[in-house]
Amino acid sequence: MSKADVEHGTGMMSTSESLNTDLLKQLEAMNQPEHTSSECWSSAASLVREASIWILLGAVLWIGTLLAVGANA
Amino acid sequence: MSTSHSVEQEALAGRLPVLSGNRVYKTYGSFLWTCCAFSAATWAFLIGSYLPYVGDWRLGVMGYVIGLIIGMALVSLASGVPSYKYGTDPIDTAKASFGYRGIIVPLFGLLATLIGWSYVVEALTARGAANVAATVTGSQVTGDSHEHLVIGVALATLFLVWFIACKGPKFFERLNGFIGPLHMLITLVMFGILVHKFGLENLWHNQVAPDQMLSHDPVQGLALAVEFGVSNAMTWWPVMGGLTRLVKSKNHVMGPSIIGVGILGAAVVSTVAALAAISAGTYDPTIWMIAVGGPVFGSIVMTIVLTANVATMVVMIYLAGVSIQQVKFFARLKWELLLALLLLPGVYFAFETEWLLSKVMSWLSYNGVMFVGISGITLVDYFILRREQLDAPSLFATRNSNYAYWGGVNWTAVVISIVAVIGYLALYDPVTVAMHQWFRYLGASIPVIAISGASYYLAVRLIVAPMGKGNYTKGTAITSRPTLDPQPAPGAMKVSL
Questions:
Q1: Is the pLDDT of residue B11 over 90?
Q2: Residue B290 and which of B93, B148, B244, B417 are 20 to 30 A apart at CA?
Q3: Model confidence at B459, in pLDDT bands (50, 70, 90)?
Q4: Range B201-229 burial, b when 16+ CB lie within 10 A, else e
Q5: Which of B62, B167, B333 sits opposite A61 (nearest CB)?
Q6: Which residues of chain B does A47 touch, with a Cβ-Cβ cutoff of 8 Å?
Q7: Among partner residues B65, B77, B482, which is closest to A51 by beta-carbon distance?
Q8: Is residue A7 over pLDDT 60?
């Protein structure tokens, strides 16, 4: 996979400008509707809820196991 | 090659933000199986072998699952979610809390984790393959010819990893779609073989000898197993952001991370290893699988298991290759050459696999410790202090960055990260297994993550924000306009890689 469409016969990028130009393009594109209207840009509330449910599940399993251990002791 | 295609390729092989349209993981299954294939290397067998020593293998497995679920949920939030939104590497997103120079702290941890574990997996693969060959042929597992085989397999593994990693994440996304399910199938087969050989009743009741147990207190034993899980999950801080920046849909971030990494890749494989460690006398599947399953079937199974290690190494080297480009020299190297440089020390370690497994493994026990404080800080910074709003151009800027802090370093984050390591070790030392009396209630990672996050919140509110550092006082939705102009206009920010 090539890292940029610049000459790199010696193994080094010919200029750092080409990399920086591509960075500028990507950062500008990040503010375009194609990205800002995508799921990536929307609130992470649903991810936080999902993670909280998993953490709650872990906590319930932990407490349940402790109760089971206590009952068998 | 079109320019847009080239930029997409460059983003996937470098630090450029990966935009929504360029994301590689477009289905739940594709990300799930990559997470699973990555997690289910032979290290999962090694970790699983420790679980019975908490006092009861059933408590060990249950605690490990609990720890992985809680830990992976926290790490996916702290590292995965910001990188998912901005398409940036976790080290770039960490600049918001650590500063553009302060990220040397998480970067060091990331490279130590990814490169260190890559060489360990290389050694496990090479010695495992040689063990299989020796067991099948009935030869000794010592001597020159055996060692030559180890070296040969190690070098071949390195070449294969380099070759696949050069193809980029799109290629290994497709590859992991086969390796992940196959590895799970093989693990179930191994479990079936153990049940057939020893019987379900024996497997359920057998335990390690009492004098070998690390704890005889079930509450402490459970806390120890939970800690194994949480601290293992902490080592995924450098990984999750690197992978979620390639995920397209929000619904595919959390579930595959927890199920793929935590449950399928780690817990299921480690359970089989725990059972084998007690009943078959060794966790090492390269030995018991052939002894129990026979030379032909055992060799086929083990070849698949060891081949899956290559998938793990590929993802680790890919992520390390992206993150090391924080150093300008590496950002300007060809991708193929950069990967070769990262793998080069592996050639030396191919000749020192035994030393590597005996010495480096102990050091890597401290691996999760490095990310406990970092996880707490990045979690609180992104969700509570910044309310999910970063200034993307500032992640690629230096002196004029909103995240410049004090000469590029947010010392409060650095100090809290270091104190977190000290606090963790005071509660629990993963090498000596010395535990503080409070350890039996919540382990070490969970309280240290909570205290680190709370400390960082207070430090920002009381010190950083009042001093006008870190863009905490300017509102939460400021976005600078990126520019390459060395004299940026007001509101613009000079960016560079």
A1: no
A2: B148
A3: very high
A4: eebeeeebeeeebbbeebbbbbbbbbbbb
A5: B62
A6: 76-77, 81, 250, 253-254
A7: B77
A8: no
What is the ipTM, given to two decimal places? 0.89
| Claim to verify: residue A8 and residue A27 sit in the same structural domain | yes
Query: Which DSSP string corresponds to B312-378?
Result: HHHHHHHHHHHHGGGSHHHHTB-HHHHHHHHHHHHHHHHT-HHHIIIIIHHHHTTHHHHHHHHHHHH
Of B452 and B325, the one with more pLDDT: B452
- Rounded to the nearest angstrom, the minimum Cα separation between A22 and chain B is 6
Q: Are residues A2 and A29 in the same domain?
A: yes
Cβ within 8 Å, pair B331-A19: yes
Do residue B335 and residue A30 have CB atoms under 8 angstroms apart? no
B409 touches chain A (CB under 8 A): no
* C-beta atoms of A4 and B10 within 8 A: yes
| Higher pLDDT among residues B13 and B286, named by residue | B286
Print the domain residue range for A23.
1-33
Asked if A40's CB is within 8 angstroms of B77's CB, the reply is no
B251: chain A residues, CB-CB within 8 Å: 46
The pLDDT of residue A2 is above 50: no
Residues A29 and A47 in one domain: no
Domains held by chain A: number? 2
Suggest the residue from B1, B2, B5, B7 to mutate for an interface test with chain A (most A CBs closer than 10 A): B7
Which of residues B53 and B459 earns the better pLDDT score? Answer: B459
- A54/B254 Cβ within 8 A: yes
In this structure, are A25 and A45 located in the same domain?
A: no
Question: In whole angstroms, what separates CA B230 from the centre of its chain?
Answer: 12
Mean pLDDT (chain B) is 88
More confident residue, B103 or B367: B103
Token pair in block for residue B11: 């983003």
- CA separation, residue B74 to residues A33, B2, B242, B260 (Å): 30, 40, 16, 15
